[in-house]
Amino acid sequence: MEAKVRLCRPDDLDAVYEICLLTGDAGSDASHLYADPLLPGHLYAAPYVTLEPEHAFVLEDEAGVCGYVVGALDTRDFRRRMIELWLPPLQAKLPLPNPDREAWTAADHIYHQVHFPRQEYPEWLDVFPSHLHIDLLPRAQRQGHGRAMMERFLGMIARAGSPGVHLGLDPRNDGARAFYRALGFNDFDAGTEGSVRMVRPLP
Fold it and tell me: Quick check: 203 pLDDT over 90?
């Protein structure tokens, strides 16, 4: 299908939530992991659309929005705004994680990040201060759309002065790792919650 990349609009938010869920299990449908289908989007997609819309893009084809790339120019600043503005309403309505960490579900991992957000900022953020999330539905994959979206996002943050970008991915997602490597990203270290961190200098 022919598709175009454009800036995300507020009325795209429902589609962004849905795409986040349908790609949330190492790139596959995560619907079976969450009784609340909005949970993954609460952390990994919607706050970017709301707090940093100038760096949020969607991919739209004839059937509707089928992908997005969202991110933050300055991770430190974004996390501060997320903690101050985005998380309090979620903390008021979402439960605490199971006290037995060994019994945590996917939902418990999100509850933990909502109620106990990380506030440490490692020194490597000076070199790779920006970060991003990209997800595409299967109908939009393997057609060059992902590369086009990444080039649009990376070009924008490079022009805004960012010296580098980082991202996290599920180590089971071999396809995503190969995709990022083809775009110049390299493995950096272990991320959080079992993820792998990759980085790329800019431009």
Answer: no
Element (H, E) at 157: helix 145-159
Q: How many angstroms separate the CA atoms of 69 and 58, rounded?
A: 6
d(CA 61, CA 77): 33
- Give 101-143 pLDDT, tens digit per residue: 999 999 999 999 999 998 889 999 999 999 999 999 999 999 9
pLDDT 10s digits, 33-51? 999 999 999 999 999 999 9
Residue matched to tokens 């775009």: 183
Instruction: Give the Å distances, CA to CA, from 141 to 23, 46, 72, 76, 132.
Output: 12, 22, 23, 31, 18
Give the torsion through C-alpha atoms of 23, 27, 33, 38, to 10 deg. -30
Question: 7 in the Ramachandran plot: left (φ > 0), alpha (ψ -120 to 50) or beta?
Answer: beta
